[in-house]
Amino acid sequence: MQKFFISLVLLVVFLSSCSNENISELSIFNNLAFRLHSKEKVMPLEAASEKKYRTYFNHHSQTQIPLLKHVKHQDYEIFIGIPYNTTLERLKKSRAEADPKDFSCAPNYCLKHYQRDSLTITEYIYRTSDQSLIFIAALTSSQRLSDSLFNALAMERRLFTKGK
Length: 164
Fold this sequence. Notes:
This protein has a seven-stranded antiparallel sheet with strand order 3-4-5-9-8-7-6, sandwiched between helices. The protein is an alpha+beta fold. It contains five helices and ten strands, in the order H-E-E-E-H-E-E-H-E-E-E-E-H-H-E. The protein has helices at residues 2-17, 47-56, 88-98, 143-149, 152-158; strands at 25-29, 32-35, 41-43, 67-73, 76-81, 103-106, 109-116, 119-127, 133-140, 159-161. The chain has one domain: 3-Layer(aba) Sandwich (Protein Transport Mog1p, Chain A), CATH 3.40.1000. Residues 1-21 form the signal peptide.
């Protein structure tokens, strides 16, 4: 009987130590995941998150990019959306026409940095091997953080296919 209680206590301790704050990846879809950094927390999608996302990112009326995930750190926020009924080429064109400054593209992604409301904003659009699109946007008040965490190489390294 004593072994049963010890086992039960150990099980409870183990289960209580597992929390969302300790996850290191965020599933997106089709075995695609987003690597999380230390102290990043996956947030529930609430009205305030949706409003902030729409205010900063989903303002291109010709493109719909619903919010899928929200990640928060004390120094920045990341929003992940899934563009639909569009292509990377159309998204490149609409972002470049809006403001061609600080905009770079490669065959499988586009990256745009800009300032708004004293924030440094990054928009990263990535085309997966199966031609799906992922929209990752970040807000931070630190230009230094934006340059180091949200550059093209850092963003690409955060996306990975599970099981590979």
